[in-house]
# Entry
Amino acid sequence: MPARPAVPATSFRCAALDDFQNVATAFADWSVPGAEVEVVSFTEHFDDEDELAAALAGFDCVVTLRERVRFPASLLDRLPRLKLLIASGMRNSVIDYAAAEANGVTVCGTESSSTPPVELTWALLLGLARGLVRENTALREGGPWQSTVGADLHGRRLGLLGLGKTGSLVARVGAAFGMEVSAWSQNLTAERAGEVGVRLAPSKEELLAESDFVSVHLALGDRTRGLIGPAELALLKPTAYLVNTSRAAIVDQEALVAALREGRIAGAGVDVFDIEPLPPGHPLRTAPRLLATPHLGYVSRANYERYYGQAVEAIRGYLTGAPVRVLG
# Structure
């Protein structure tokens, strides 16, 4: 299908999806020389494709954060005005690139920093280890003065599932705390682990069984979906903590809720969920021993400045016939 005819630059309308904090226009200068770009921020998530298609019908461009909103052929076919789709990050598994190309839609990405997810990983891990939420709540509400005994990090084993860019940075922080760090993934070698200064665990099972803290830093794929299920959770020590800031589907959600409710692990820190935003009645909202955040791993000032700033660059590039950071 030929590319859609260009809409005059003076009427270029852009939708910013899932702008929950209503900050899209504050983190970038959306002015484009020779063009008038109108940015409309959507602060509520669209769960229904019909509602999303209706909301986006009048836009030339859509900016979507991470992989929260799916863009299948069934949606792209219903957006005849859409010409530019910008996704934060340089990898997005929920966009149908073939359908985008068939509909004349250019897909662009942005750069993304691994630092914010690393920092949130440690915020969750430390919060769990020292019972920060429980102790803070008690202090503010007149509860008991000290009710928990913190878990030590120094000298304890940190097990990393995945030793890529994010996992490697998490490993360095663990070493700074004096932790013994080991890692495992299907393709990880002893040489690569040694470069980061960590020990290669002989197997996933041994890593889980020997670790006091386990943190997930794997990409989601056929080999990692459901990687941590009931059998794997059963290998964890009852004093162990599990942290997942990667992808929800890597850990069996029902099995995790069961392990928390039955007290088979000390706790879990979670930033990713099978459904986002998390529905009010979802079991994870009431699971005990859980420290959870609403997918904040990438949500930081520096990353938002990068996402929205480079979204503007993508618009400028498209309007001048020189698209940047094209995905597909």
Observations:
- The longest strand covers residues 12-16.
- Confidence is low (pLDDT under 50) at residues 1-9.
